[in-house]
Amino acid sequence: MNIGNLRELLERQQIAIYFSAVAISSVIAMVVPGTAALEGVINPALAFMLFVTFLQVPLAELGQAFKQVRFMGALLVANFIIIPMIVLALVHFFLEDQMLRLGVMLVLLAPCIDYVVTFAHLGRADARLLLASTPVLLIVQMLLLPVYLGLALGEDAARFVEVGPFVHAFVWLIAVPLVLAGVTQLLAGRSDIWKKISEVLGLTPVPATALVLFIVILAVVPQLGPAIDSVLLVLPLYVAYAVLAPVCGWWVARQAELNASASRSVAFSSATRNSLVVLPLALAIPGAIPVLPAIIVAQTLVELLSELVYVRIIAKWGK
């Protein structure tokens, strides 16, 4: 089996791989004492996962995304105007605890830049358009997240999001992996050796994501006592979001007169969130553990189940 076929196999089976990682790590965490000590391994694992994830994003094609004016306009309106309105309404009316509001907003306000492309492809969306737009989505969400948090949390935003740890997490766990991915892509375009290295690294996003889930569950489950009630409070919001978001994305795309496959791409992007990319930012917040990791991982699990539905239902929209 060549590298391309193996990568395709991993991508097709990624939901099963992720759930297996979660199930196995949950059992281990409940029967093996001391797994909470793995908390210190989360950031290195995240850094590697984000590096190989960014490596799959066509950073050199950033300019190409802006040529698709109507698609990019619909994508940005859906993700950064319509979706924030939905999220802010959900947290305002259904959550009183500011820490819970913060966690839900962190995960639901950040559109996915990685496996959404695979799911969009499976759901008969235009994955090529979505792939070209991923650098724009990453940049815009990092610029707007502090704005949205400030609007929703007011003075509490400054209390929760201390500038030092937040900047440290952003630099070392997002900016540095992003730059390294860009350099690797540049070298791969000029050297056969680096091209081969890049191809091999292309096999690792799914295993790396599974590893992060595995480590996070091992570290968080032993501390879940006070977080269980929090998870139960946010689960209905995640389910509501999973239903509303793709419909809103589809509506925005149709208002922009996009074709069916491009509209499906906007629907998938609106529904799929950047949970593991924002996790390091959440972990940098004082007092984050165990509540924020727990509710972020909970959203990931709801989303993975939702994707199984999306690839069947959204694929039929616009026929």
UniProtKB/TrEMBL annotation:
InterPro entries: Arsenical-R_Acr3, BilAc:Na_symport/Acr3, Na+/solute_symporter_sf. It is found in: Cell membrane. Keywords: Cell membrane, Membrane, Transmembrane, Transmembrane helix, Transport. Its main location: membrane. GO terms for cellular component: plasma membrane. It comes from the Bacteria. The keyword Cell membrane applies. The chain crosses the membrane at residues 15-35, 41-59, 71-94, 100-122, 129-149, 169-188, 200-221, 233-253, 274-298. One of its GO terms (molecular function) is arsenite transmembrane transporter activity. Pfam families: SBF (PF01758). This is Arsenic resistance protein. It comes from Herminiimonas arsenicoxydans.
